[in-house]
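Deliverable D5.2: sample structural annotation.
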Amino acid sequence: MTTLQPTLNAASSADLSPKPAAAPAIPAKIWIAVVGANLGAFMAVLNIQIVNASLADIQGAIGAGIDDGGWISTSYLVAEIVVIPLSGWLAQVFSVRRYLLTNAVLFLVFSAACALAHDLPQMIALRAVQGFTGGVLIPLAFTLIIALLPKAKQPIGLAIFALSATFAPAIGPTIGGYLTENWGWQYIFYVNLVPGAIMVGMLYFSLEAKPMKLSLLREGDWPGIITMAIGLSALQTVLEEGNKDDWFGSPFIVRLSVIAAVALVAFIVIELTANKPLLNLRLLLRRNFGFGMLANFLLGTALYGSVFILPQYLSRIQGYNAEQIGMVLAWTGLPQLVLIPLVPRLMQRFDPRIIIGVGFTLFAASNFMNIYMTNDYATDQLFWPNIVRAVGQALVMAPLSAVATAGIEAENAGSASGLFNMMRNLGGAVGIALLQTLLTKREQYHSNVLMQSVSLLEQATRTRIEQLTQYFMSHGVADHADATHRAIVAVGRIVQKQAYILAFSDTFYVMGVALIVALFAAALLKKPNALAGGGAH
């Protein structure tokens, strides 16, 4: 810094604020490491939604039932959410280079292995290991941004990370649907191999080799690790399987819920009392990190929730196949490719809290645009809500990450990254579980309400049944009683379909409300002193 002193002395007193030009140049290797790690995070997140879009095809190919086939996704998510908070510590033990490269290579190996699975147990096991190795890539990409980039350049790194956090879930169904319909479900796993090889090459070239610190294994917070792994595994399984198993009507779900509650409470107590905790939970007491975590949790709820609900609606109500669904959701993903790179410049010109507020407002508005759905609500009607959603998502992630982590010390980067990314994924799991249950309950409610108006005592109902009876008789049904029965069944299906449309509208309303709450949490964020030089706690 002494070589810069003459220049600083020559500056006018009104121009003493730090200049980007005064910052030392960042070596190319650092940018290669950041981009390579974020490419890995992108693939890890993509593999959640890309598989969900093709789940029916995979289940059919390996002979899995509809209920059991859900474990293909659940096993990946359970493993991923457990390893995310562990990764900061394990990277210290084995070194970032060795740990990241090993898991990147294993992720590719098990991706290819999933395409060769022959039965359900094999697929579940392979997906679990794939999720464990992929889960490593997400927090370490975030950690490298905080640890390697100076504060002035972190918004650029966080914008790159936003591509994995918001763009990958949005574009996943598009890629998955196209590959499944045109090439076969195996290619949703093979698609990882080429970008994965590029990622491994970038990380191998750019990451600095450092010795392992295996002594940390003896000093590890093993009670915290064990209780966290048990608690998060049980909680994630409850959230993924609860609606299918009728929640607390299932002894299996009740037992897992008790295990999750006991283990997670024990984990919190251990982390607050341990000399060397796995995660520094006291970071949550910092104003920006605490409220940022809440906003991030609700962002995950709506982000993953919308990617879950839209395909469900298009499949059940409109009869779209995987590729058609992907084309509709593309307009939630593709605009983000254009918008996200512009966000760091916006953060230089405007208070990042304003950008966060605008993003949450637009994301909420996109959901409220879908609360009056009808039978004809399809591709054209979803276009503008999806565009608005894309703009909102693009604006939120990078500035929220920057404000929440401003002032986080290097030694706390691993904890901050693990907590921040785990909370978004957990928000997604909670959101999907809540929306699944809400969809079921509201469909039942609307069906009951609508059936009160569809009575055989009503002339309109009798007229409609008679019209349908004549329709069936004119199309090959000779028996009048059989035709009448079919007409009544058809009326019931029409009512159920309308009830589902109203229920889907309700789910969008709930996601909009969740984002309004996230907006209030973001409003409580304190403006960092400067993102270029530390932030307020």
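Annotation notes: The two ends are 27 Å apart (CA to CA). The chain has four domains: 25-216, 221-277, 281-442+506-528, 446-499.
The annotation will be released with the project's public dataset once the embargo ends.
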